[in-house]
Amino acid sequence: MPPFTEMLPGKPEKIQGFMVIHEPGKWAPDVLEDFDVFDIVPVGIICLDMRSGYLIEANQRARQVLQISQEAIFTDDDPFNKIDWSEITEELEHNELIERKQLEIRLADGSKKWILFSGKSSSGNALYAAILDFTAIKDTITELQKVNFELDNFVYHASHDLRAPLRNVLGLLSLLKQGDSAEERIRCLELIEGTINRLDTLVVDLLSISRNNRSQQRFVKINF
Question: CA Rg, the chain, in Å?
Fold first, then answer.
């Protein structure tokens, strides 16, 4: 068979992906071991021993994500042996496939990292899985959740501060309707005017906060 590039007309600009051709009846993991395909895959691929939680195999990308060397596989520096696998084992008893499970792992230097874990159980106690570094996305989600909480808290207090003067105005209008003397009505109108002015000041302050949050901060050097 001619080379793949000779089977297509023209000059290829880019070849992306890879293809594995193996003998009939030969299982994929054996082929991967024979041809070292693990190391050309741009995704972290691992093989785990579910009994001990140790790594059996990890391609180059997986070792980069886990920050371990080839020699650290199946040693105490392996971050997977520190995970409680009971939940995953129970899940595999009902489903052979685990998809996009979030796992927090502790690296050899003590730092923590979040990974997306998708795996399939195999014969024996082997688990083949793909992993993706999820730490930056997880941090972003956590930060967005914090911002949303602060926004909800701000809206709650702002709405309370806005409603209070409006309710005061409604109460004063009710008194104004019931007032008999001109002096009482003038007093109610003065109170309503003061309440509206305070409400206007509050709205202006809220708009200022909104503008300050949108504006870019500029730092200028000063001499002490």
Answer: 33
